[in-house]
Specification:
262 residues, eight-stranded mixed sheet, 32% helix
Length: 262
């Protein structure tokens, strides 16, 4: 698979249409950076399911060795990869690492892609140092448009916590919020998505070949964002527009901090 092929799911920085989505992801990486600044020594960090690799690079400078893993290569970019960053192409279920080697495992917006995440969570628990921290994010089902064909299972807070407790003795759940301009923009985008979905009341999209549904999703991702930009504009945002606090029904994402791997 070409890492640069636009899918609507795999984010590519530098496009205004996706600036809000990029800032949303950066909020999680910023929380990981804050943890690293409090941790001495920083140790080894795994970014599992790192996508295009931009978030992985944001963790550089912490003094830690950062390893980004994804099933496709990260996007080629003009700037050189920081010396502290390494990228590995590997399947989530065949990770080439020995156990208990990472002080922090970050895996953002991955678990919703997996029909059965038990093996994936077991791998995170295996790779984590006994006193390490695993950080995961996933879309909040209660705020989801449920239109993404790449997402095979989305979670409410209680279900996510129960699933994680099967692999970790301690789980703290948080929510990623939205400041008012972002919330208004995302609401406008959701209204546009719902109008499109009403054209398919029988949910024929659920029975299309997977490759076709993913191609259509990529086109609709652009259509929705362009239409929202024309009607509403795109707010200027940073990661600070996605504050992390208690997990609420209107949190756009759920964030879990997991300790004491079983």
């Amino acid at each position: 698979m070409n890492a640069r092929r636009f899918t609507g799911e795999r984010l590519h920085a530098g496009d205004e249409l996706f600036s809000v989505d990029i800032a949303r992801h950066q909020a999680a990486y910023q929380r990981a950076r804050e943890h690293l600044h409090r941790s001495r020594p920083a140790g080894r960090i795994l970014d599992l399911g790192c996508g295009s690799g931009h978030g992985t690079r944001e963790l550089a400078g912490s003094g830690a060795l950062i390893v980004g893993v994804d099933r496709v290569a990260p996007d080629p970019i003009a700037e050189s990869v920081p010396r502290a960053c390494q990228f590995v192409c590997a399947d989530l279920y065949q990770l080439p690492f020995r156990g208990a080697v990472f002080d922090l495992v970050a895996s953002f917006q991955v678990i919703e892609h997996l029909e059965n995440p038990s093996e994936y969570l077991a791998a995170i628990a295996r790779l984590l140092e006994p006193d390490g921290l695993a950080m995961l994010t996933t879309p909040n089902l209660l705020m989801s448009d449920r239109a993404n064909p790449y997402h095979v299972h989305e979670y409410e807070a209680a279900e996510l916590e129960a699933r994680l407790l099967e692999h970790f003795a301690e789980v703290e759940l948080f929510g990623v919020g939205m400041r008012p301009p972002v919330r208004e923009y995302m609401a406008a985008r959701s209204r546009r998505i719902r109008r499109i979905l009403r054209l398919d009341p029988l949910r024929i999209r659920d029975h299309l070949p997977r490759a076709l549904s993913q191609t259509l999703f990529a086109r609709f991702a652009l259509l929705v964002r362009r239409g929202t930009r024309r009607a509403e504009g795109v707010p200027e945002v940073t990661w600070r527009d996605f504050p992390i606090g208690p997990a609420e029904a209107d949190s756009i994402d759920l964030m879990a901090l997991c300790r004491r791997p079983r």
